[in-house]
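Project outcomes to date are best conveyed with an example. Our students and postdoctoral researchers have been running inverse folding experiments weekly, and each run begins with a structure described purely in tokens. The record below, which covers 295 residues, was selected by the lab manager from last quarter's runs and is presented without edits.
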């Protein structure tokens, strides 16, 4: 465990002591893209903090393994497999959530991936797919949760309701080889701010988390050969020539003031802040979780 991770875990311990039932006690949270990486870390952390978690992912097998891990630790979770871009997905996910847990407090639109190419060689359909995964899918899911979150019923007034959409430094600043991903991740910010304005009067908060370099398969060496298959396309993941995350030192990430990449758990901690009542007066914000990169 790194020193930063040890400090994070100590803080979680202190929070648990001051909130014995957890910061999300009794609440229901949907996390898409929760089978691995930052989404998995969110699902596990939210469950530790007392949430009933819907672990959703394209990879249903891995999602089920996360559910087992949560249950083993005494938490509550269900798995819902599926592709966020599928026409019937929003209904399937929301129905499964409401059938199991009766309500929805938190939605984290985490599912996503990169499909890097220089702009002039990016096929049109790959550009469209990036918009579909990162913009259309969250839009359709937010629309589907509307009847459960966008309530003016006075009994819901005091309920925590929080939506978190995921962006990237590429969306805020652009990035070579990522015209498709950067465009989509910039769109996330506009979607978030609009939901914050339209649903704020109903007591719903909506925020963006923009990650920098977090150690997941998206940011590991492309040479490791990880791929994802979406809409019938097999897409290679990773950064060419990156080496292993473990070897990443400050010399290799000179643009990150903290001198290191972040862990999925550090990414999840930022999401917990925005998901919980700790951020009860924060809406429409873009929280950059980047170790200071891009300032
Ligand atoms: N890792 C980083 O440094 C970084 C930086 C900026 C933004 N992000 C964003 O954070 C989010 C999580 O990424 P990660 O790094 O944890 O990646 P990851 O590959 O470890 O996890 C992403 C998960 O999303 C799932 N997923 C992808 N497409 C899906 C689809 N169409 N339907 C359902 N599930 C799907 C994958 O199966 C996977 O389990 C993504 O939106 C990504 O764009 C990550």
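After processing, the design step wrote out the following sequence:
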């Amino acid at each position: 465990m790194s020193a930063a991770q040890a400090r994070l875990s100590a803080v979680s311990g202190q929070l648990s002591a001051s909130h014995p039932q957890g910061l999300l006690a009794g609440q229901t949270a949907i996390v898409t893209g929760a089978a691995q990486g930052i989404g998995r870390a969110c699902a596990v952390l939210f469950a530790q903090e007392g949430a009933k978690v819907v672990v959703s992912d394209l990879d249903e097998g891995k999602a089920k393994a996360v559910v087992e891990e949560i249950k083993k630790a005494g938490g509550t979770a269900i798995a819902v497999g599926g592709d966020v871009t599928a026409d019937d997905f929003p209904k399937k996910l929301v129905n499964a959530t409401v059938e199991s847990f009766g309500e929805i407090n938190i939605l984290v639109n985490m599912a996503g991936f990169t499909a890097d190419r220089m702009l002039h060689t990016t096929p049109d359909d790959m550009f469209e797919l990036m918009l579909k995964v990162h913009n259309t899918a969250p839009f359709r899911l937010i629309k589907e949760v509307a009847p459960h979150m966008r309530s003016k019923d006075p009994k819901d007034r005091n309920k925590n309701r929080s939506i978190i959409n995921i962006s990237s430094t590429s969306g805020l600043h652009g990035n070579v080889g990522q015209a498709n991903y950067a465009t989509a991740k910039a769109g996330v910010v506009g979607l978030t701010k609009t939901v914050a304005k339209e649903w704020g009067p109903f007591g719903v908060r909506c925020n963006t988390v923009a990650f920098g370099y977090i150690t997941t398969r998206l940011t590991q060496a492309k040479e490791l050969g990880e791929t994802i298959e979406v809409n019938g396309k097999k897409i290679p993941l990773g950064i060419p020539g990156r080496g292993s995350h473990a070897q990443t030192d400050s010399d290799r990430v000179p643009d990150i003031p903290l001198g290191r990449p972040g862990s999925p758990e550090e990414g999840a901690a930022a999401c917990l802040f925005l998901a919980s009542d700790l951020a009860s007066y924060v809406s429409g914000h873009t929280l950059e979780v980047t170790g200071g990169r891009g300032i």
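The chain has one domain: 14-215+259-289. The two ends are 28 Å apart (CA to CA). The training component of this project remains on track.
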